[in-house]
Amino acid sequence: xxxxxxxxxxxxxxxxxxxxxxxxxxxxxxxxxxxxxxxxxxxxxxxxxxxxxxxxxxxxxxxxxxxxxxxxxxxxxxxxxxxxxxxxxxxxxxxxxxxxxxxxxxxxxxxxxxxxxxxxxxxxxxxxxxxxxxxxxxxxxxxxxxxxxxxxxxxxxxxxxxxxxxxxxxxxxxxxxxxxxxxxxxxxxxxxxxxxxxxxxxxxxxxxxxxxxxxxxxxxxxxxxxxxxxxxxxxxxxxxxxxxxxxxxxxxxxxxxxxxxxxxxxxxxxxxxxxxxxxxxxxxxxxxxxxxxxxxxxxxxxxxxxxxxxxxxxxxxxxxxxxxxxxxxxxxxxxxxxxxxxxxxxxxxxxxxxxxxxxxxxxxxxxxxxxxxxxxxxxxxxxxxxxxxxxxxxxxxxxxxxxxxxxxxxxxxxxxxxxxxxxxxxxxxxxxxxxxxxxxxxxxxxxxxxxxxxxxxxxxxxxxxxxxxxxxxxxxxxxxxxxxxxxxxxxxxxxxxxxxxxxxxxxxxxxxxxxxxxxxxxxxxxxxxxxxxxxxxxxxxxxxxxxxxxxxxxxxxxxxxxxxxxxxxxxxxxxxxxxxxxxxxxx
Length: 587
Description:
This protein has 587 residues and is mainly alpha-helical.
């Protein structure tokens, strides 16, 4: 049976859009599928919700016109947390009248969808084949082989557990949260994609692409610190490699290697004398020889990239610098509270087997264009240095950098690998010997991907079982009652163990006697910490409450705890509604 030329032409034109649509469907299946049976659009997802609820409180404050830059629960102290994404959600909620959970979902799904669609389009365009548009979907569904290595009987088998709270998991498990990390990763990935396009031979608009790359990566500093540091380091490494490959200067290679080795070896000394963040900057100096060479002979591209990046990143960088200069205790705590979060060599390599195999398959391509080879050199170099940061003095949650590099590597490889293989296949008559080896490695990566789909389905099942918190403002609902009770309260409000202060933070911007240790600290952090610890044990510590400045309590009559506030503790009943009782201090 022969296909008519017209039909073949129509299929060729339609096929790329089928690939793009497939990637988009996969995105929606990951970020929305697990909660479609609960409350997908107005509920707040309960998947690892502790930190997410704290972030959402920032958006709630903005939506209600409350403080932006103080500790989000108590509205005291200073917050140096990069919160631009949560500010955006809050402003969106205020402008549209939609709830913060709805804004969280709509904006997150929209940004991730745009990112994957653009990667699918570029993968198709660079390779010239429609099937490449599906590769971004494969990238974000690649697991860490946890289900193979640990077995389904292991609790949480879809993730690789490390020391303390460190874990390794696939991109899908990060994307589902739709938090600031996801937003920053999306923008960073698009910035790196723009840099890739600008670095190709004879790009149509190199300077606008470089400007876009700088702006997108720079703005991530205001959204999520680890993503900014990861994408900045990868960009610097990538740019350095491009200069070295273009110039083919032995002196430039040697000087870059010497500076890098010296910076890494002296990093622990710099960290001890100046601080961990200074160590990161110190190691970044390895890009200086290539940058100075570029500045001397071709300054315009470098300036067009770096100036917008610096301007976009400056708000958060300046705020953090001022906090460090003022010896802010929270920033000091954050820089020294990342012990025992390293990535062991064997689990780290095993979890990264798929991107490593993809990289290896592309790497053995002969006479590859240097513009495609540069990211293949930069990815393993940047990943190795960042993931091993506990050895050179930075020591800032190495597992987080592993996950960041895993996501960015998979997305970039989804664009680069198809282009490399199509280019190679067209010249296969001249280079026949390496092609079977490359296809064998690709087959191994594909087999590992299929065998490791247990990670994806294990995550999906876990997220669906967690479900969502339904935020109901219907008259008579518990949440509507709590929202009404707290509307006109003054001073700091605390709740008994049966009322989650973080869930209450979604309903009101009234100051609440609670805080997240890793997000920001209130003015009376020590007293409030004592109050929190007692509350977690079901005990009401009236002395700590008084010292922390808590003036109002909300209790639930059906709560089985030792919370029995009264005149002896300095609190008197003020109002009662549907089992909720408000107690006010008269001191």
